[in-house]
Amino acid sequence: LHLPPCTRAAAMASAVALIALSLLLPAQAFYLPGVAPRAFKDGEPVKMKVQTLVSTETPLQFDYYQLPFCQPRRVQDLPENLGEALAGEKAHTSAYKARVRVNEYCKVLCRKTYTPKQMEEFQDFAILDYRVNMRLDNLPVAEMINFAYEDKPDKTMQIYNLGFPVGGKLAPEDGSKKSAQSTDTYVLNNHLRFKIKYHPVDTGDGITTEGERGNYIVGYEVIPFSIKHTYYGKWNQSAVPYHPLTTCAGSPPNGRFERHQPQVIDPAEGGQVIWTYDIEWELSDVKWASRWDVYLQMTDDNIHWFSIVNSFVILIFLTGIVGLIMTRILRKDFARYNEVALTEEELAEANREMREETGWKLVYADVFRAPPFGRLLSVMTGSGLQLFIMTILTLMFATLGFLSPANRGALLSSVLVFFVLMGLPAGYMSARFSKMFKEDNHFQTALWTSTIFPGVCFAVFFVVNLVAWAKRSSTAVPFGTLVVLALLWFGVSLPLVFFGAFLGYKKDPISVPVQTNPIPRQIPPQLWYLQLPSSIVMGGLLSFGAVFVEMFFIISSIWQHRFYYMFGFLALVFIILVVTCAEITIVLCYLHLCAEDYRWWWRSYLTSGAVAFYMFLYGAYHYFTRTHPSAQFDALASSVFFGYLFIFCYAVFVCTGFVGFYSCFQFIVKIYSSIKID
User: How far is 13 from 495, CA to CA, in rounded Å?
Assistant: First the structure.
């Protein structure tokens, strides 16, 4: 795919993007993601932060303190970057306290009495399998489980499940009389056992001196319990957090429990809950630089490789068709039209064919006729180039490790920064095609380029945000973040688009190899499979077939709140998608030109961009098959999911539409510049 002369401007913008990203993500020389290690001395207090409540049954997430959990005397909102704010990853201080390498058991967090309404709220969150997210020293808390492949049961690996459940359904064998009468009895996980893994700081000569130079935190695990705590006599608030409980064995507690009942959620009468937790420190061989490995390791890499091979098969098929067109059909056409190396018999046959001439040469005087809504097409092309370069830069930095999940919010922040800075090549491209289409209002073209795509995205985002505000979901973005987005849009992106358009309009119009007739040629009736709807269906389906497996993993990772870090696979899939879109558009464009239909401008854009329509349908299928029945038609859940899915698919449509349109344009320029026109 050859980019236009705006590559110099794009290179300048890319250099600016690199500088901006270096300021945004201060990298350490020894660790790409840019998070500096911190050593903790023995006995030093560490802060356990609480974040959000998320579920695999619904796309909605809520703030931790929207449920009546125990709170510290003063809840502090911890600073967040732009990416974290957009993702709704708000962090707060908590009442949990721990000291380095000090094991403590059965510490009382608080004792609270809940109303029936509050208990019902806990039950609703337990029914939807909501999980609590916390973090310590930038590590997310997780339940660790052993995973084994079916064909290799002896070979196990440790994988994680982020957070811990608010509660769960009471198992029949653990049930009381009440649970025997009702299958809808739920319990509350009111006791947490935190296992914090640490690795002593190395001295530099390979000798590890435990505790002398401090300790790195390399693991943060949790095991939830449901325990209906009991105690002797009256409750003594001054004894918290070391208030003695009869359900905890030993004095002081040793981590074992006496015989107890689970803490049942009673939405009819409410009740009292004592919240407790354990702190266990465990020495680990894991180095600090490898502490994220357990979160980022793959258990399904074979499926990814299968997806890549499947996509390559489609790609090879399309490449063969394009190669056939270029090497056989066009070569014969060029030879016939240019009368090169023809024998007398071949020349006589060619002359007879020329008298009844059909094919793509017949429409040479109309093939570069300006399309309807030419200004809009030039604007969409400019925005497509903007998204195309943004995607390349984001994937490049992500593949190199700069956008690791360890650097929270870095991925979304980088996407925004790159998109804003790529306004320069967007304005340049739209100006060049607008000038070619002889659109006279230059200001309107530049204004549309800077406002149509981001304006639609911002409008959808704002509507989703209004619904989230109304439902008090943590998905809602603060007003200050909206102001920052508006400043980036109007203060950075818009001026760059206008500057790029200024450079584009200073250039001469794009030259084409043939002249356009003032009177349009009549287009003969087209067969059904050459009509626009058929082209869109075929073009989008083939492109979607090349990427749907990777899309499944991306949606599943987002839905299950797991870290997606397979950017190498994603980069390969993106390259395959780009080449597939370009080739399928070229093939269909050639077929239409042979049928004497020269209306290729919008058709090439829509054919290539149709992959976004299939992505939207696949996302909708995923939503209705994964969402809990009680949340499928919830106004907030559906608006959040389909709102963000629409923004993503709209961006894919504009980006892939540009790829198809520009490759088709280069193909047509190439073939019509290679023949003699009488």
Answer: 13
Query: What is the distance between the alpha carbons of residues 53 and 89, in angstroms, rounded to a whole number?
Result: 10
Bridge-based pairing of strands 191-200 and 215-225 is antiparallel
Single-letter amino acid code for the residue at 30: F
Torsion of CA 287, 292, 296, 299, to 10 degrees: 50
- Which two three-digit tokens encode residue 239? 């004894």
CA distance 388 to 371: 23
Q: Which residue has the higher pLDDT, 675 or 258?
A: 258
**Residue 233 and residue 317 in contact, taking contact as beta carbons nearer than 8 Å:** no
35 vs 518: which has the higher pLDDT:
518
- Does residue 209 surpass a pLDDT of 70? no
How many residues belong to the chain? 678
pLDDT in tens, 38-47: 899 999 999 9
Q: What are phi and psi of 664, to 5 degrees?
A: -65, -40
pLDDT tens-digit readout, 439-491: 888 999 999 999 999 999 999 999 988 888 887 777 788 888 888 899 999 99
Place of tokens 């207090």: 45
Alpha-carbon distance 125 to 119, whole Å?
10
Contact 656, 608 (CB under 8 A): yes
> Between 671 and 3, where is the model more confident?
671
Dihedral of CA 82/83/86/90: which sign?
negative
What is the distance between the alpha carbons of residues 203 and 210, in angstroms, rounded to a whole number? 10
Find out whether 97 and 45 touch, Cβ atoms under 8 Å: yes
Does residue 589 contact residue 602 with C-beta atoms inside 8 Å? Answer: no
| Cα–Cα distance, 57 to 68 (Å, whole number) | 22
Nearest to 53 by CA among 44, 45, 62: 62
Closest CA to 222 of 146, 124, 159, 141: 141
Kind plus residue range of the DSSP H or E element containing 164: strand 164-165
Q: Give 653's pLDDT tier (boundaries 50, 70, 90).
A: very high
> Count H helices, E strands: the chain?
19, 14
In the beta sheet, which residues pair with residue 140? 135
Res 656 pLDDT > 90: yes
Tell whether the model's pLDDT for residue 667 goes beyond 80.
Answer: yes
pLDDT reported for residue 20: 43
> How far is 656 from 665, CA to CA, in rounded Å?
14
What Å distances lie between residue 243 and 236, 247, 259, 451, 620, CA to CA? Answer: 7, 12, 19, 61, 51
Average pLDDT for 571-585: 89
Distance CA 217, CA 478 (A): 32
Q: State the alpha helices, DSSP H only, in 367-507.
A: 374-400, 410-421, 423-436, 442-471, 479-488, 494-506
CB proximity list for 525: less than 8 A, separation 6 or greater: none
Tokens of 645: 């899915």
Crossing angle of the two packed helices 532-559 and 567-594, in degrees rounded to 10: 170
> Do 660 and 579 form a contact (C-beta atoms < 8 A)?
no
Report the candidate in 472, 446, 433, 441 with the shortest Cα–Cα distance to residue 604.
433
Round to whole Å and give the CA distance between 166 and 263: 12
Query: What is the C-alpha separation between 129 and 339, in angstroms, rounded?
Result: 74
Q: What's the half-sphere exposure (Cβ side, CA atoms, 13 Å) at 408? A: 17
Rounded Cα–Cα distance for residues 17 and 14 (Å): 5
Residue 112, beta-bridge partner list = 273
Cis check for the bond before 241: say yes or no (omega within 30 of 0): yes
Distance CA 340, CA 203 (A): 78
